[in-house]
């Protein structure tokens, strides 16, 4: 079994989507001053590797805390845009840029989640039909092509949450 971290590290001043809050990670307590270490975090809900709830782009749609935990993990596969068949009943990830031209095909398959480099129009369409999206992933190219793996991307339990940073992990069997 191999565990592959697909997450970007959260760091002070890291790049964010234009207009999103600047990421600030500051040391608030040190071992010397308090006998423990503590950091203060200030960031947007769509910082780094994150999951989007339907409410992110659709008023009144499901928020993170309203979705069952089963929506944030499961058997998954990396697919290519040109693959003639995408598997059913799995989370799907794109290692290449995917646009709105994929929406009809994904809507027919109804995967529990979709991730990768997704256009805003594709994200909006997927979230509109209740499919959560993962973006800001790194290292999808390290996953086996054409093979299933287990994906885990749990959000923080934010009341009314429209999105959350996640620790995205793939577990690949030998």
UniProtKB/TrEMBL annotation:
One of its GO terms (molecular function) is arylformamidase activity. GO terms for biological process: L-tryptophan catabolic process to kynurenine. It comes from the Bacteria. Transmembrane segments: none annotated. This is Cyclase family protein.
